[in-house]
## 1
Amino acid sequence: MRKDDHHFLSEEIVEEVSRTFKVLSDPTRIKILYLLSQEECNVNHIAEVLDVSQSAVSHQLAFLKSYRLVKARRQGKTIYYSCDDEHVIDLLKMTIDHIEHD
Amino acid sequence: MRKDDHHFLSEEIVEEVSRTFKVLSDPTRIKILYLLSQEECNVNHIAEVLDVSQSAVSHQLAFLKSYRLVKARRQGKTIYYSCDDEHVIDLLKMTIDHIEHD
DNA sequence: TTATCATATGAGCAATTATTCATATTTAAG
DNA sequence: CTTAAATATGAATAATTGCTCATATGATAA
């Protein structure tokens, strides 16, 4: 195939696709997203359930929020997080499914 | 939800899911896989078409091969690579599609 | 064999990243 | 206002990663 005959992805698309996968490439983030796909959670609950430090969870939530994959809701002293991107959750669940039933 | 009531992912599943996404989280690997999803290519062709050094391409191909995402076929001095994991290509194309039609 | 083309590989390096530790901020209760 | 609880944040660090450069390997042709 000649160079001109290829269908190319634009640099921006490639960058955004890789960013999407990068978000999902960390075990802690996967656990957080999967947990949040089951229920809205506050930070300490996530930390306890997943056995990750409060600080690490908070850092990852800030990261996930910056990509609009989760959203936050305050209620008193507590902040509840939940998923905010159905497509990314679908992508995650599909991949889990595929790997579980190799 | 009580800790015991959650559906948990095993550590092995989480690790494998994150590895899968990690493979797809690099722009060069995305370009290579997308190119190989269109046609079987030799190493130099990939390097030229994508404007990446021969060495970088070869390193990434070795990486992709170690995860069995691509396979190699020798013909004389030339080695032709092609995709060897339909599911990962599907995952990639779905994500490209989603981002292109945000 | 020797020369050359195609690809692979190892060392080194700069950049990124996930975590920890310490501390700051925000909110509510007393 | 003070204290405590919940969360956020910044600096530091160790680990990982993707590339380059130089060189090695493998295959073919002369």
## 2
Amino acid sequence: MKSRSQALSKVFYALSDPTRRAVLKHLGSGPASVSELAQPFDMALPSFLQHLQVLEISKLVRSKKAGRIRTYQLTPDPLLAAESWISAQRTSWEKRLNQLDNYLKEMKEKKL
Amino acid sequence: MKSRSQALSKVFYALSDPTRRAVLKHLGSGPASVSELAQPFDMALPSFLQHLQVLEISKLVRSKKAGRIRTYQLTPDPLLAAESWISAQRTSWEKRLNQLDNYLKEMKEKKL
DNA sequence: CAAATACTTAGGCATTGACCTAACTATTGT
DNA sequence: ACAATAGTTAGGTCAATGCCTAAGTATTTG
């Protein structure tokens, strides 16, 4: 139970940075090396590496080194876990029609 | 574009803490006051308040004060935005994996 | 083997985050 | 009015983040 929560924390934390989200997006279209991933960013390589480490610690990505090139790729599971958590919350509040209803009414009032 | 990204960052950041996720869970079953929300946690009130502020800044919740009681409630939109972002990523790599799958199947067929 | 390439590690600095205690303000109940 | 209640603000500690430059380690490549 506890470890699941910690894992979720790390995943959400990893997702909380635009650079890291961009890296995930990039990896969505296939594996890539450190320098390929770093290229779009105006940042010193060691700084960028830290972001990759955060991603790897969260297990959103994994990497393997072949020769002098380290290749990163996505690991789907943690992203799924995060999505599930959010989805569960959504289901919970959607059940409560009250709140949603009030919310929509307020939106209407704001638009008028 | 940029503001959307910043908003997402704040939402994911807010979600990266177990206390804050627990608060959201609590609010999923209805609005609640500061002290109701704080009660399960072994934490000084000012520390807990900071978490509520993080949640409010991320717009995952909003609050109104009536008399001396401040009541919090969920705001669904940011959670939906976060879920959408993840979902979009998932779709992206799922497509790719399908393509890879097709490719592998073709290879198999060629071998036959 | 020497030079270029692709990372890696070390160390430093500024900011932010998470927690605390103590003291304060604004209601409300008696 | 006074005490209790419900939050709030101020200020301090300590660790973690995000960025940097400089220097180091492996691997190719010429």
## 3
Amino acid sequence: MLPKATRTHGYQQVASILEAEIVSGRLKIGELLPIEAELAEALGVNRSTLREGLRALESDGLVRRVAAKRLQVVAPDPARVALTNARALGLRGASFRDLWEVQMQLEHFAAHQAAERASDEQIAAIRASVEELIPSLDDDQAVVRHDIAFHSLVSHAAGNAALELATAPIGLLLFSATQHLYQAVPAARHRLLAAHRAISDAIANRDAGLASDWMRRHIADFRRGYEIAGFDIHANIELSYSSPFGPSSG
Amino acid sequence: MLPKATRTHGYQQVASILEAEIVSGRLKIGELLPIEAELAEALGVNRSTLREGLRALESDGLVRRVAAKRLQVVAPDPARVALTNARALGLRGASFRDLWEVQMQLEHFAAHQAAERASDEQIAAIRASVEELIPSLDDDQAVVRHDIAFHSLVSHAAGNAALELATAPIGLLLFSATQHLYQAVPAARHRLLAAHRAISDAIANRDAGLASDWMRRHIADFRRGYEIAGFDIHANIELSYSSPFGPSSG
DNA sequence: GTTGTCATATTGTCGGACAATGATAGTCTC
DNA sequence: GAGACTATCATTGTCCGACAATATGACAAC
């Protein structure tokens, strides 16, 4: 019974080593990596092998190509992470009920914290988001986009990275699953607008309790709409696919 | 303002295409991918380029090497995803307070749901986890490992994939941050054992309210211990590093 | 000082090669 | 005929060398 020699390949070691360097802080965020030829020599592997390892890091969002073709160490972009998580949830067969339950636990808290902590710019962004919805209230796609953006802004305004990371993929999945809800339930879009406006106002007025209450009702109402539209609460939710590779401009 | 010509490279297209195939379900979970030579030819790229794309997919947890050296489509392993998220949270500077706040919202709910939905096997596993802790209560590392495992088991028993995904990275970070807490606060380990036992019993008795209450107190107590130990609630939490590449036996 | 041109550096991609190793078929023994 | 053993094959992981495309920086022209 030898130690089972977990066959760990070169490219895995490359990724593992660089990842450890980044997580441990020896490679700092923003730092530029050496050119591939140097890195390969330093790690004692061929450039091809090195590149395979780099692809893994890039996919994890730990490095990215930057202007001068060089690789830069970066902190994972929340939007990317959210997309990855949403995909994972979709593939693991999360149901509307699963997602909604978690959302019910988190969103009202996000609204509460946003009311207490949001900066003036963040409040302005939230208000602007609501205002922008009004002219395109008839466009289902636009409503969904706004819905995702609004809740994302509120979570962000709560000033809690963990909260933001937890809510983002759920919002992404849940709201994109409502693309065809607004035809079945015409009143939904107006109720959504009213709720978002109320939440927005409460946050702007620093009324955490009111913001929290409105959000709670809003999420509860969201589920009712989903059920009224005749969708199955227990069916798996699939991520309706939107362009996976943004320029990642964060 | 021209369309910004997003230079998308070959290996990115490879990853993107295969990812879309998997997410859309055209490539089903468990299916084996063709050999690299065939895939490369089918996609019109060199094997080197293909492999770089595959590394990205592998890193995303969408495929893995399986027995016959072949690549198999898999649903992302929750443990892997949790580790990725924990790393992202650490690098984005999440504080103990951030993590704790979210945990406070989710863990009591997890206990509640576990009491209602856990299978007999899951209840047995939770009980066993608590029992196993007793003989090694003096070993700080073992306490931390148990702590992570226990909360993970409870979340899993709640039968909600989204809840599990949201809580796992937070537990990973929070509990691994307590490695040096038990020396500063000797009573902590006994309070932890008592709480876990009470939660375990409540779940076994299907008493959702009691399980939820105990968990709430347990998490609140956890924070008190952290503060009493003199740790800074607002300091960034770093992921103490543990072997990133498990055999991923899930 | 701005613009255009050139040399240089670096990446992305290709093709080929080979050792290691797991899978497979075929052979031998009973 | 069943099972153990062996030789063959297929496939991956890794290396090497090469080249076009392109961004950078230096330099010349205006």
## 4
Amino acid sequence: MGAPKQKWTPEEEAALKAGVLKHGTGKWRTILSDTEFSLILKSRSNVDLKDKWRNISVTALWGSRKKAKLALKRTPPGTKQDDNNTALTIVALTNDDERAKPTSPGGSGGGSPRTCASKRSITSLDKIIFEAITNLRELRGSDRTSIFLYIEENFKTPPNMKRHVAVRLKHLSSNGTLVKVNTQLLIQDS
Amino acid sequence: MGAPKQKWTPEEEAALKAGVLKHGTGKWRTILSDTEFSLILKSRSNVDLKDKWRNISVTALWGSRKKAKLALKRTPPGTKQDDNNTALTIVALTNDDERAKPTSPGGSGGGSPRTCASKRSITSLDKIIFEAITNLRELRGSDRTSIFLYIEENFKTPPNMKRHVAVRLKHLSSNGTLVKVNTQLLIQDS
DNA sequence: CGGTAGGGATAGGGTTCT
DNA sequence: TAGAACCCTATCCCTACC
């Protein structure tokens, strides 16, 4: 029988992302033929690439809602979020599996956002913003709406959260911690 | 709101089994489209069929298959079959709880294995073998190893049970009680 | 034919309900 | 704790359209 199910490895996913960055979407056969990726993706077809890319996109789009839902479900009854600072504490930025970042020709992403960020007096809100951008995992970065949505659904937020976030985004963007790509924001790779 | 939980009726279960026998596992949509079953299963989705089949399998297979199945599952795509090959796979056409069958047009499947078997001087060991094949419920049949395991784990067995079983299997196969189809063995439908 | 986009089906892991 | 029913979604397959 064929493969029971061939799950995508982080390496393969990274190769795909890099391939898309290099050749663009819809160039599946081209990416497969590129010697830079052909080895890693040798067990994948052009259709597989297409499917996986679609899946990645969808995941990124709805990522925040999903996480929020899960977070809510997992919250045991009676586990109230008090006003303690921990309410807004950020779980360790999950960079572990971020290793598989689009290592496009040139630089491999890697630096922990916190590291570079800590040099710039990060507020707890900033941490949240980084978490959002990191966890959203959107290849081309996340726009403000996605970031708002993520934060809104993953934290107890004050009424004017958006404004606060917007302010911080502008700040982080202007001081170089975040890089604006087109209309999107990326964590600056140090 | 949602259905309170729609329990499977014996009719539905019978239809599902018949459908799998006719079209094979993994052909859920096909089974659902088959006019022979579509009426009975009209309130079920292809996914429901898949889930139910999984539940049936899991339940029936407690004990023996575990090892066998796990071993098989672990088998990577390219792994070769050793000499303990699948040539002895056996399929149980019907089981006792199949009585809800009359409803299916064309009356596929039907006779109780035991019935036809009893005409051929069934030994108590044979009954056990039939039980094993029946309860294993493996669509593509049960190989000797699975049968051995089933018996081993469900009965107090003498030390040389395997040999006895093997002998009976060969006997039942040669006298037509079990039918070898392709590389498989079926209980002969009377 | 070869390639891509899109719809849809299946496989498996998880979750909920009993 | 287990079993049955159901949910989620990554992966795979099929078809239409160049």
